[in-house]
Amino acid sequence: MMIHMQTKQTVFAGLVLSTLFVSGCDSSVRKEALGGGALTPVTVTLLREGGEGDSEAESVVAAGPKITEFGTVRGTISVDGALPKLAHASPKGQAKDPICGAMDILNESVVGESGGLGNVFIYLKKVPNVDIPPPPTDQLVMDQQGCIFVPHAQVVQVGQPVLLKNSDPIAHNVKLNGGSNSLAATISANNEANVDYQFQFSDRKPTWIVCDFHTFMSAYVMPLDHPWAAVTHLDGTFEIPNVPAGKVDFVIWHEKLGIIERSYSVDVPPNGEAAPIEVTVKASKLAG
């Protein structure tokens, strides 16, 4: 495994595996993008998950007739009960530096509104026999603002350009913990020396991101090698356009709960919309 990192230049990571995403509304136009978290507009991506750990997905394209028609998958991840009130990730005065220590840092591990759960990842478990579009050329931005990663949860396609920013007046660090890619980069204050990066491998489940300088800072990213996945909005809703028609299975994952659904089956009609994915989790399981 190997990283080639350079400020203002492309950063490459190394390790093992593959997974990704795509967005768009018109089923006749196949677009690619990556998914932001609950506090950002949701975008979609095609993904392939590997068969290890708690995800049990496959990383090879399935055999069978070539699929050339596509449909839309929408849904909602709801919460049964009131969302728990979590302690701050870092209360005011706890952090040693004068910037992060001057404010309460929110715990974003559980967010939602109107009975929905935000920042839930929904992604295709097994890719059918279909042509997978190349990665988007649009640059994905991962910022650090107010001692928080922005967005908190997102999807990126392998090979898509990623810009690591730091809008805070103090230095931060971006480190990938676990997963197939490797990165540990110091990002200078006030966007003075941003870092370009590309994920080289897809993963079986979202990768945990931390700042080594401020250990209360964390986020999740899902690198995928195709575009069929999404991250839920604050109200728990999501949309995945241009999903291959036919019967497909999705994995549903949340940082507090891990795997919510291992194989949620959906029949996607050609040029139509599948029956919505509706999943409810108990609020008591989100506490702690």
Textual characterization of the structure:
By secondary structure, this protein is mostly beta strands. 0% of the residues lie in helices and 33% in strands. The strands form 4 sheets. It has a 5-stranded mixed β-sheet with strand order 5-11-10-7-8, with no helix packed on it.
Key descriptive features of the protein:
disordered N terminus, Immunoglobulin-like, mainly beta, five-stranded mixed sheet, four-stranded antiparallel sheet, 288 residues
Short structural summary:
The protein is an all-beta fold and 288 residues long. Helix content is 0%, strand content 33%. A hairpin with a 2-residue loop joins strand 3 and strand 4 (148-150).
Please work out how many helical segments DSSP would assign: 0
Strand order of the largest sheet: 5-11-10-7-8
Distance between the termini: 35 Å
Per CATH, the superfamily is: Cupredoxins -  blue copper proteins
Global mean pLDDT: 84
Query: So what's the overall shape?
Result: globular
* Secondary-structure element string: EEEEEEEEEEEEEEEE
Give me the CATH fold name: Immunoglobulin-like
Radius of gyration (CA) equals 18 Å
Instruction: Summarize the biggest pleated sheet.
Output: 5 strands, mixed
Question: Which architecture per CATH?
Answer: Sandwich
Count every beta strand, where a strand is a DSSP E run of 2 or more residues: 16
How many domain regions? 1
Give the % helix.
under 10%
State the low-pLDDT regions, or none.
1-34, 40-59
> Quaternary status of these chains?
single chain
Class derived from helix and strand content = mainly beta
CATH class: Mainly Beta
Portion in beta strands: 25-35%
